[in-house]
Amino acid sequence: MKFWSEFYIPTLKESPADAEIASHQLLVRAGLVRKLSGGLYTYMPIGLRVMQKITQICREEIDRGGSVELWMPHVHPAENWEKGPRWNAAREIMFRADHAGSGKKAGAEPEFVLGPTHEEVITPLVKAEVSSYRDLPKSFYQIATKFRNEIRPRYGLMRAREFVMMDAYSFDADDEGAIKAYHKMKAAYEAFFKRVGVLAIAVEADTGVMGGSFSHEFMVPAEVGDDDVIYCEESGYAANREKATSGLVATDFVVAEPIGEIEKFATPGVTTIKGLAREPHNIPADEQFKTLVYIGDDKPFLVLLRGCDDLEEAKLGTLGFTLVRPATPDEITPLMGAKPGSLGAVKDTLKAADQLAGVFADEAIKLVGNGTTGANEDGFHLRNVNVTRDLAITGWGDFRTVKAGEPCPTCGAPLKSRRGIEVGHIFKLGTKYSECFAATYVDDQKQSHPMVMGCYGIGISRTMQAVIEQSHDKDGIIWPWAVAPFQVLIVLLDPAMEEAATLAKTLGVAAELAGADILIDDRDERPGVKFKDADLIGVPLRITIGGRGLKNGVVEVKWRHESEVVQIPVAEAASRIAALVEQPASA
Amino acid sequence: MKFWSEFYIPTLKESPADAEIASHQLLVRAGLVRKLSGGLYTYMPIGLRVMQKITQICREEIDRGGSVELWMPHVHPAENWEKGPRWNAAREIMFRADHAGSGKKAGAEPEFVLGPTHEEVITPLVKAEVSSYRDLPKSFYQIATKFRNEIRPRYGLMRAREFVMMDAYSFDADDEGAIKAYHKMKAAYEAFFKRVGVLAIAVEADTGVMGGSFSHEFMVPAEVGDDDVIYCEESGYAANREKATSGLVATDFVVAEPIGEIEKFATPGVTTIKGLAREPHNIPADEQFKTLVYIGDDKPFLVLLRGCDDLEEAKLGTLGFTLVRPATPDEITPLMGAKPGSLGAVKDTLKAADQLAGVFADEAIKLVGNGTTGANEDGFHLRNVNVTRDLAITGWGDFRTVKAGEPCPTCGAPLKSRRGIEVGHIFKLGTKYSECFAATYVDDQKQSHPMVMGCYGIGISRTMQAVIEQSHDKDGIIWPWAVAPFQVLIVLLDPAMEEAATLAKTLGVAAELAGADILIDDRDERPGVKFKDADLIGVPLRITIGGRGLKNGVVEVKWRHESEVVQIPVAEAASRIAALVEQPASA
């Protein structure tokens, strides 16, 4: 039981200027956090209480999932990362740490980095500890601060430089075991989000720089989310847009009838799909080929799409390059012989085909017959281009962005799209890290194999903010019971009145024994201020003592998520409140 | 209830080569930590459990002491420190953090630092939040990782680059309030160390680079400690040697009879106190003056001591310089006109008196009459030097190291000395930080004043190791009940035997209900291995099930700190064990 006057909850009337979204505004206004610097926040007392509750629920569920808790250093020797498989991709997002007196030259490799995640630490640790199949499977997790050098931190705790994450790592003897570990962890995540009281949906996701064979993200649907989720209400299909597929693409090629002969034609000043779709050319976007130039690990490659489709850059990850970026106009022109806007991949027009790492075609171009593409000559295009006959394709894949309305890949019903906040991610990593760090085990035939790994993350601080984003109204936060900083707020209208103060303590003790955390608002403030603050900080159950009610022998009880105020006779208050508390507390 | 086979406790027979002290060896051998790199340790599952228990006890006691928990960032903007009062002194011990792409030049000021403590963050925070006397007093604390760029990390968690600390900060309207806050915190510390089960003695301490008016350290007596504690068994006086005083010094000057005239004499090749004490000079060390040259904030100053005394460098902190260091021979010779070994502070021989920031004399030289000192001329000394008549003293102080055997400053009994591990520190800071950050409040007369601060630290990870250092034997750790990773270990001699396994679970549940954490050793290992591991990891209460005992209808019970094994009939085991658990659990 805490007293507001001795505790510290600095509520604010105004939102800070840099808070663009409701949850960020409420984090600050309800006194949960204070900003130290961009992306660096102090968790104020009630913010920390929520974090501790989310942490404890996470610990219990991940424990139940069979993982064992440990705690790794925040500062990592850079050499662990240099040895690992993703130093080049990850170094830009990491803080580097050095001594004041290290005498390092600018641009030199740092001695230490601050960990954004811990594969590079736990894999060598497990390698040193575990060597026999008898010691497997093993799964370890920690709940700890992570660091990410966000260039543009924003949205409060959503994209911060410091954040708290649960990260888990599983080590199995074989693929079957790893898949079992993956599903055990997925179930633990589902239990966690349910207990926290937030709706988080598992969606198929891209594995990105982490690598690995497959993964799911846990998404909290919210308009302010950074990610698009493509989903089907019929089949239950759900995937991050970066990973989503659709039923649009036929496996067979569309064959134009009749197939025309290639013709070059002048298109002066036309350098866009839209331009070619207008007068005088009138070529619909879905009858055009889009030719993009990318650089993969220093070698250029082409990506072909329908003119009406957009590239989903994350999908280029399947090509196996470590670093991928769009080529610059200065790189494109000498390579292709033309500026962007007149590019194409028709066999004879590709002057530097031998310099290319490949020409990768999106499956959807199979739907184009007698299409139009650039002639690799400024101001000229080619018509009657047909895929199998004319294009110098070396590989196929799914590279396009799936849009709402396309058919579901599972059932054909129209797909929908909504934005979401990523609060968790699970990866089946395979042997990418264990091979790199030689984390092997010996089987019962004395044969050595790399361990098969999985890795798993839950954003603890992000989950706190996602809860607020999903559960608030115009007056403030509406905390789910399990993670509320306090579950019961007893408002004393006149704290100096001894009878009221004694009753508050009696009811507080009764509610505490029933399993709730109690805050008594004993401040010397007007009732209006107290009720506004109560709504703002979002304590689920409010009990008001004092005023006319107390004279009439009643206390007032109100749930934050309901508008009704219920009057309870003082004599019954302790038992009635205990009963109210026991119900959600045991949920 | 955990099962050893599903948990992870990697015990080792051998100590790591770099572990010099017992507690460091046991941390590793009992599987509590693993080294990632110098001064960076992973807390393995049972190590983390102990840390979490110590953390929770600390939280409860500091809460009880009236401080409110929050959680500040690990990464601090360097500008906070540049604005603060100790940037120059603290920067060398801090990690600097930058982006990979920050383009900072080597030697440039870093953008961020990793916090070794948080005065520079909390003072501006409280300044922004609190402005009226009505909001005071306030006290905040956190339990969080701290970073220190140790050049030579050693002794495991004792001197590490990352460590966990409880740090608290109190803000009061006046000195009286600050002293009250200080004593409240001191009481909370005493309660904490008592509950943890470690003997920690509060001793007077130097305020060092932290600054402030007075402070106490909490010391765990241990031979491997870094600090010397000077104490008196009669009066209870106790102080860090850096701060200790003795009753040796009379307030009156000893006057030589007769007072001689100063005489210069040749001392070729004699440049030490010892040399002058030998043939042919035979001048006892306590009749010599020792003259030391130091640099304080770029200006030289002299310190005068008796030849038999040592300088306690920390005591120079009272002189008010920000940075103090010994002068180099290259700085000394031109200043004094002679090399070290022939220096003195006799008025006429001081050639560059105007360049000195002062000549500071230790009180004990009052005991010297007709003394000998250097002539500021290589190879010459002066005899018949008398303090008040001859020496160019500008200030007095206590600068000498107190030794065991000297009289207690309180009661005169002989002082004793022992080594200790510092596990906590409390400072009355005064207004050093609040003035620097303009953390002021307005009183009821609308007058503005700087808040009066205190700051407080407990080394959580260090306390864990100090417990081990204080409580172990040749076989392993002997955990105090309250912080043991598990309190009861049930050893199954034959885990495959169903009757034994069922009994283990029954007894485990009984002990758990009585308030203990239970570990069941269900590994497929020989009994000898299990008993050795049980002693090594130091679980307080061991219950053995199986073998001949079980055939005879008994289980064996043994306390880790006792040698006796008690046999209990199976039928009584659950209730007897519950009774054993309830006693220490409620202590």
Protein described:
The structure is a homodimer. In chain A, about 25% of the residues lie in helices and about 30% in strands. Chain A has about 575 residues and is of the alpha+beta class. Chain A folds into three domains: about 65-240 and about 415-465, Bira Bifunctional Protein, Domain 2 (BirA Bifunctional Protein, domain 2, 2-Layer Sandwich), CATH 3.30.930.10; about 265-395, Alpha-Beta Complex (YbaK protein); about 485-585, 3-Layer(aba) Sandwich (Rossmann fold). In chain A, the strands form eight sheets. In chain A, strands 4, 8, 9, 10, 11, 12, 13, 22 and 25 form a nine-stranded mixed β-sheet that branches. Chain A has a six-stranded mixed β-sheet with strand order 1-29-28-30-31-32, sandwiched between helices. In chain A, helix 12 (about 500-515) links the parallel strand 28 and strand 29 (about 520). Chain A is elongated, with a radius of gyration of 30 Å. The model of chain A has no long low-confidence stretch (mean pLDDT about 95). Chains A, B: Its main location: cytoplasm. Chains A, B: One of its GO terms (cellular component) is cytosol. Chains A, B: This is Proline--tRNA ligase.
